[in-house]
Every structure is written in C-alpha cells, then in structure tokens.
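Example A, followed by Example B.
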Amino acid sequence: MQFFDTHAHIGLIHDDPLEQLRVITQAKQAGVTRILSINNSLHDFATVYANLKAISGIYHAVGVAPSEVTTPGDQWIEKLEQNLTLPNVVAVGETGLDYYKQFGDKRSQIELFITQLEIAQKHNLPVVIHNRNAGKDIYDILSERIPDAGAIFHCYSENADYARQCAQLNVWFSFAGNVTYRNARNLHETVMMLPLDRILIETESPFMIPAEYSEKKRTMPAYLPSTARFLAELLDMDVETLSSQLWKNSATVFRLPE
C-alpha cells in the first residue's frame, strides 16, 4: 500500500532541515510516499521549498491563509505567481475564510480569497480551502469562482448536508486525524455519503492527531495509515482497496502520475 498525505505543514514540524528529513523518512517507511507540503504565507516559503526541493515525493502548495490577511507582504501577488511556476508546486493554498479567530475583517478575507481563486484559475491549479465558521460564504464564492482545476476542502469539518451541497461543484473532501474519533459523527456521516472518488486523507501535521496516537504531542505524516484504516472500517472496505482509491484520487486532483 502507498499513501499520499495531501496536507502537511512540514515547515512547521521543525525549523531544522535534518528533523524534516527524519520525519519524511519515517513517513516513507510507513508507506506515505507522497506528501503535499502546505504553506500559509509567502514569508517562509522560500526556506521551506529550498529545504525540501531535492527530496522525492514532496510536492508543494503555496498561498496566503486568512491568518495572513493583514500581512501578506509587499507585491504578494507577483511573488505568489512566481512561486507557482516552480517545479513540484501543484496547488494554491491554503487559502479561504476563517471567521472563528476573526483575522482582519470579513471583507479583507473575502478579497484575499477571491484574488487567489483567480490566480489558481490563471495557472490552472486546484486550490486548497481553509474553512472555519465560514461555510456559507465559501460556498457562495466557489459557486461563482471555483477554478476549473477544482478545490479541496482540507480537514473537512462541516456536516453531510453541506458536503452534499458542495459536491455539486468540482471539489474533493480531505479528512484528517479528527475523523478517527468516535464522537465525530458529522464527519462519519459525511464520509459514508460521499462518492469514493472525491475523498482524500491528510494529517494536517503537526495538528489533528489520530485517536490511535492520542498520547502523542503532535501528529506526523507517518500516522496517515491510521486514518486510512479507520475509514476502511467505517466504509466496510478492505484497507488495500480503499488506499488504492485514495491514491488515485490524490493523483487526479494534483495531476500527478499514479
């Protein structure tokens, strides 16, 4: 079996490139042979990219998250577009809306989000969506502006009804370690109603620790198979069959060979 961690903040795991390499090596030993390294801002992307660019199986998403709405940086649009042309950069993100922590104001967040959707469309790339307490606005915006390459709801946290509504769009739904908790019934219901070809898995490293590793202080890409095993049990599927489908889904959305 092989797995694709579609959302990991490797740059946050540790500032030391040797520590990052250790984490990636452990992941590969666990069968996680592809990882999408996520960057929330342009300020540290160059360093993270330089540390990881020589490692096989590492891909990148770069964008400006809602948390950076007040400090995206000078000429951030030009810098983002330049970064999107680098080898192994396969998505814009993460970006989206976060009304829980109220970064900046709603209008500024929406403008930042829409601009990046337009950039994703220009570069024919999918966009990685951060959604926290902003489901309606995100759906309304995507209904009109979703890039042709589609979008990924990362660390999906809404209910099955919202997923059913969004599934009318060109979107994928990515589930992190929190789906493995027995009380996450809204996520379990969502997984069971979604088409299999629209499901992805991620670790959201170093956050969202799977139940199997709840005693740990942080999660790592090596823990991703735990989430796959839980979903296979939930869906009453063989884990090998499910992992093959998840791998295919990941290759499809990021336009990579299977």
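Example B, a separate protein, is given below in the same form.
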Amino acid sequence: MKKYIFITPEGNTTSPNNEEVENMQVIGIIEDVTNEDEALKKLLQENSWIFDCDFNVAEFICYEIK
C-alpha cells in the first residue's frame, strides 16, 4: 500500500512578525491506498472541511511519499 501527501498553493499564513505570507499548504496525508485517485477520494471523504473552506481540488498537488 502507498502513502500520499496533498498540498495546495491556495491560502496564506501569518509569519511570526504578523505579516501575511503566500505559501504552499499541506492539505493532508493519506495512507493505505493503491494509487493517487484512491488517495484523493479518501482525502475528500475524510475531510469535509476542504469543501467548506472553498479549496479548489483541481489546484491540489499530490506526491507519493515513503
């Protein structure tokens, strides 16, 4: 079975000196799946907040990790 990490270029974060910074954000890590499509499906099923926060799933970047 494989493990995947999903990141997105959407969103911002606040730096230690309270400045807004554009960055990549980790959306989630999914384990025990056979491929990227299965990982995305599991990610979305287990994290309804992704849609609640209006993330664009098409913008997600997926990498297999060990």
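On Example B: The mean pLDDT is 96.
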